[in-house]
Structure formats: C-alpha cells, structure tokens
C-alpha cells in the first residue's frame, strides 16, 4: 500500500501570513500543499488566483495540489500551470470537453486530477481513469471550509479503489472535506492514500500542526 500522504488545505490558514504558514506546514511534515481556488460562480465563495500562487511558490518546494473550483475552467488551466501548480484538479462539470482539458494539463507537464462532488457519479469519468493521476473525492459540497464529512462517501471511495485494483491503474485517491481524527482511519481503509484537511490540521491540539499531521497519517 502506498504511503498515506497529507495535503493540508491553506483555506484554513492565516491568510495574512500565508508564506509563513506554508513554511510551517513543510517543517511539520506535510507532503503536499492543497490550494482551493474558488470563483464565486462554480461554487459560492471566492478565494485566490494565479498571482497569489505564483507569490507563494517561493516559500516551499512541496508540490502545490491545486483544486480548481472554477467555470469555465479550461481557459484558466495554463495560468495556474504557469503560476507554479504541480497537480491541477478540475471538475468534469466545469469544462465543455474533459478530454481536451486533461490533454492540456498533460501538455503543460502537470499531473492531472479530476474531482467528484458528492452527487457526481463515477461513471462520468470511468473511461478516462487511465489518463488521470489523481481522483479527488469530495466528502462535502465544495465552496466552504469547516463542513462535516458525508458518511455515504465511504462507499464511493471503496468503489473507485476496486476499479483501480481491478484494472491495475495507478492514480492516487484523494479525499477532501471534513477529514478529522474520527473518520480518517475509515477513509484510509476504504482506499484513499491522500487526505486533505484544513480545520483539523490548523486548529486541533492547540494548533500543533506537526502532531495533527502525524496523527492523521497514522490512523
């Protein structure tokens, strides 16, 4: 089994100290830096864009795990690639042609992620799984941090993991939304190998990020 990786979401960080927060995450053992990009259109919130990502890039060598919750997404992919994204994750509903968007991300030499909202069926992306580096399973409805984990998502994780094993595929299974010390073990057991967490990492144990990362990884 692959090592469990932790991708802390900077959505829960102190935005006035983002550079320092990212350094703190790296020093505390984070594997990736999860960057949530929201446009106020595809999801009901607005966060950051390519200029901020470009500015933050100098603070760490960790991969930037960039989740684009924007529509139409295709025309912005190159901007985020140029800004320093390492993994670019998009939603099938946010592009007119998923194949073209996957090809563009690959052309830009970035890893391809595709995200499934809680109500999005696996069938919509199943035929593309051989072209994808990462499946991001949303365990909350995207748009806001601090939401509660949706338990029914466990079955979706299991199903995707079984498809992966049956077809001898290599994509990572990442889960994002409400991940905490109570549910991380079940999520990992279902087949996930990357956990995204914001509130738990930044707030639990009086903000002891290192301890929180280690605890999530070892559950």
Write the layout of secondary structure elements.
Blueprint: E1 5-8, H1 18-27, E2 33-38, H2 50-56, E3 64-69, H3 77-83, E4 87-90, H4 98-107, E5 111-116, E6 134-138, H5 153-166, E7 172-176, H6 184-190, E8 194-197, H7 199-207, H8 209-218
Parallel strand pairs: 1-8, 2-3, 3-4, 4-5, 5-6, 6-7, 7-8
Helix pairs in contact: 2-3, 7-8
> What is CATH's topology name?
TIM Barrel
Described by strand count, sense and barrel closure, the largest sheet is: 8 strands, parallel
- Determine the N-to-C terminus distance: 14 Å
Which architecture per CATH?
Answer: Alpha-Beta Barrel
What characteristic shape results from the CA principal axes?
A: globular
Explain this structure.
The chain is of the alpha/beta class. The chain has a single domain (5-218), classed as TIM Barrel, CATH 3.20.20. The chain has helices spanning 18-27, 50-56, 77-83, 98-107, 153-166, 184-190, 199-207, 209-218; strands at 5-8, 33-38, 64-69, 87-90, 111-116, 134-138, 172-176, 194-197. The chain has an 8-stranded parallel β-sheet with strand order 1-8-7-6-5-4-3-2. Strand 2, helix 2 (50-56) and strand 3 form a beta-alpha-beta unit. It is globular, with a radius of gyration of 16 Å.
